[in-house]
Amino acid sequence: MPRIRKPVVPGWFTQDTGDFRLLGTRCRSCGSVFFPREDVFCRNPGCAGDDLEEVPLSRHGTVWSYTDGRYRPPAPYVSDPDTEWRPYTLVAVELVAERMVVLGQAAPGVGVADLAVGAEVELVPGILNEDAEHTWTTWHWRPVTTAPGPETTA
Ligand SMILES: [Zn+2]
Fold first, then answer.
1. pLDDT band at 17, cuts 50/70/90?
2. CA-to-CA dists, residue 86 to 69, 78, 83, angstroms
3. Known InterPro entries for this protein (predicted)?
4. How does pLDDT run across 27-61, given as a tens digit for each residue?
């Protein structure tokens, strides 16, 4: 039986892989953008707004910082203790238009040697993990390569 694809956090990103985006919210009073989304009140201390609209965030950003996880995190992180630990790469990405930094894992196969502060990255759909019934989807950041060649998207 095929696994059901489910977002690891509902409402944080689109399910449309054609125009895959993180979803934040924007205050209609002051224009502040929030991610993770804020749906109740504006967190700008100088604003009393409470009307927030959902907005797709920029697909491209620049690397603000990065590191890799070489140790298995404790629960509730999901991993199989019987399998060999494979390091993953975390990237903090600055979105210029939204004036914010968003964390995420780098796409599979991307290590710290492939990243540099200031380098352009793009948002791509990713898989966090799979269990018997579900494929848990998330977002990944992938370096934008300027080299010519066939471009494929997941
Ligand atoms: Zn506001």
1. low
2. 9, 13, 9
3. ChsH2_Znr, NA-bd_OB-fold, Thioester_dehydratase-like
4. 999 999 999 999 999 999 999 999 999 999 999 99
Report every protein residue that has its C-beta within 5 angstroms of ion ligand 1. Answer: 27, 29-30, 32, 42, 44, 47, 49
HSE (CB half, 13 Å, CA atoms) of 80?
7
What is the helix, strand, coil percentage profile of the chain, to 5? Answer: 5, 40, 55
* Fold category of 4-8+58-143 in CATH: OB fold (Dihydrolipoamide Acetyltransferase, E2P) (2.40.50)
Calculate how far, in angstroms, residue 33's C-alpha sits from the geometric centre of ligand 1: 9
Domain boundaries, the chain: 4-8+58-143
d(CA 99, ligand 1 centre) in Å: 15
CA dihedral 38, 11, 7, 62 (to 10 degrees): -60
Which of 62, 66, 12, 59 is closest to 34 using CA atoms? 12
pLDDT of residue 151: 54
Record the pTM: 0.84
Residues 81, 83, 152, 149: is their CA dihedral positive or negative? positive
